[in-house]
Design a protein that fits this description.
The chain is of the alpha+beta class. Among the domains are: about 100 residues, Arc Repressor Mutant, subunit A; about 190 residues, BirA Bifunctional Protein, domain 2, CATH 3.30.930.10. Strand 16 and strand 17 form a beta hairpin. The two termini are about 60 Å apart. Belongs to the class-II aminoacyl-tRNA synthetase family. Phe-tRNA synthetase alpha subunit type 2 subfamily. It comes from Halovenus rubra.
């Protein structure tokens, strides 16, 4: 029988009594594993060998796991320090034990989280008591780390899952294939095989020389399993952002851009937000270690904004009567919203003086010191937008949102009156999640107050909004937790497979 060189080599290397690993044959024949695998499947199609496969799981210690295997788990260190300090008899101050155990940084939280879970004792009101019936020498997780260091395997799946959850090990899987000679294969080897060169592609030289009539072409098994390749693709959030831009440009808006780090003047003071507002403290935003200042703000604009804060604008406005510091206003800050771009454009700092009507938008990143949950991240994308025109009303604002969200298949919008320092009237927007059926907040909006517009020398109405891009994507795709889509806990499988549809 005539066979291509790789098939002949695999057939000769196969054994009728013992399963031979494809990788072993590849090393022995100096062929690539994928070439041997392909040849094995081709031989199996001829009933010369059989191919068997199984999944092999390997477990390796991470850098953190190796460190704990050498030094000991943090909860064990805390337990042993507590025992030495007599916490089995009387409570001992936690602060003392942390120092005795040599714990610092994240190790303290890890120790406390696992100390009670394992029944080592209790931590109450800053004091630690030890359970004398428990001993650290029987810690199953520590024993598992020692086993892996010695090259052994962990039989208890629950222990393996726990140390995997803690990030102490990495588990990987690979498909192992092995070949075995069939009776037909043995007969073929006994009768003898010849190797024949095969051609895997038709070239111009073969055509012009006529050699193509005499050569043997490689057979291709189109049903053979191929290695999986993860190709790059556009992030669903970026897809949503691109779609948002297309929709807003189609609605007659122009895109605006501006600095991520800007003067607090543009971020807050121009929005008629008092300098003692909670949103301007470190509780709501991130601090810059060396903030610096912006000096190129027109002095007459600064004066008008300061007057608005102190005295208000018009007969019905009194301002805040609170301290206002120009140095504080000029300091650089990481923007907590993108409305700073709006204030720059309305003041004429970005494109010069603008005459109504005007429509602008941006899809840019903002940063807030929020508590992480299914709808909040420390950094997020805000869809900023505003319209400058004569005699704008709430109906214009609501109609704009209705038209915009309909482009994404979102028709169940709810509006709730709210308070903003810079808009009156103001409305929060809510949309219904397609999976949970819950109403989630998707944005904030309103008509800018005179106290904001007059210092910027804008003498017509301006309606504006800040919408959440991530929450729009959640409503459009059905994602229930934004952390699965964006951030450090992102679900890579979701990103590889999710199709955003509208």
């Amino acid at each position: 029988m005539q066979l291509p060189p790789t098939q002949a080599a695999v057939l000769k290397a196969a054994d009728a009594q013992t399963k031979r690993d494809v990788t072993e044959i590849a090393a022995e024949t100096d062929e690539k594993p994928e070439s041997v695998t392909r040849a094995a499947f081709e031989l199996e199609d001829r009933d010369l060998i059989t191919v068997s496969e199984h999944v092999e799981v390997s477990v390796e210690l991470t850098e953190e796991g190796e460190r704990y295997a050498t030094e000991s788990l943090p909860e064990i260190a805390l337990y042993e320090a507590a025992v030495d300090a007599g916490a089995a008899d009387d409570p001992v101050a936690l602060g003392r034990l942390i120092g005795d155990a040599g714990l610092d940084g994240d190790a303290v939280d890890i120790a406390l989280a696992n100390f009670a879970r394992k029944g080592y004792g209790e931590v109450d009101s800053g004091e630690v008591t030890v359970n004398p019936a428990v001993t650290s020498t029987e810690d199953a997780e520590m024993a598992a780390l020692d086993t892996l260091v010695e090259g052994g395997s962990i039989e208890d799946e629950s222990i393996l899952e726990e140390i995997d959850r803690r990030g102490l090990v990495e588990r990987s899987e690979r498909t192992v294939r092995a070949v075995t000679l069939t009776d037909e294969g043995i007969t073929t080897l006994m009768e003898g095989i010849e190797t024949t060169e095969t051609i895997d592609r038709l070239t111009p030289d073969l055509l012009t020389s006529g050699e193509w009539e005499d050569v043997e072409f490689t057979d291709y098994n189109v049903e053979a399993e191929a290695s999986e390749k993860q190709s790059g693709r556009k992030h669903p959030l970026r897809q949503t952002a691109d779609r948002v831009k297309d929709v807003l440009v189609g609605m007659g808006f122009q895109e605006m851009q501006g600095p991520t780090v800007d003067a607090d003047f543009w971020i807050h003071d121009c929005l008629f937000m008092p300098q003692d507002h909670p949103a301007r403290t470190h509780w709501d935003r991130f601090s810059i270690e060396n903030p610096g200042k912006i000096d190129d703000i027109p002095s007459d604009l600064v004066e008008r904004v300061e007057t608005a804060h102190h005295e208000g604008v018009g007969q019905d406005s009194e301002g805040y009567h609170s301290p206002w510091d120009e140095d504080f206003a000029r300091q650089l800050a990481l923007r907590g919203h993108t409305t700073s771009l709006t204030s720059r454009h309305l003041a004429g700092e970005s494109l010069g003086d603008l005459e109504p009507p005007q429509r602008f938008f941006s899809v840019e990143k903002a940063y807030r010191n929020d508590e992480l949950d299914e709808t909040h991240l420390l950094e997020f994308y805000q869809i900023e937008g505003w319209v400058m025109a004569e005699e704008l009303s709430v109906r214009d604002l609501m109609g704009t949102f209705t038209e915009f969200y309909e482009q994404f298949g979102i028709t169940d919008l709810r509006f709730k009156p709210t308070y903003n320092p810079y808009t009156e009237p103001s409305f929060e927007l809510f949309g219904r999640h397609p999976e949970t059926d819950e109403l989630i907040e998707i944005g904030n909006s309103g008509l800018f107050r005179p106290e904001m517009l007059e210092p910027l020398e804008v003498d017509c109405d301006v309606m504006a909004w800040g919408l959440a891009l991530e929450r729009l994507m959640m409503l459009a795709s059905g994602a229930e937790d934004i952390r699965d889509v964006h951030g450090t806990l992102v679900d890579l499988e979701f990103l590889r497979t999710e199709e955003v549809t509208y």
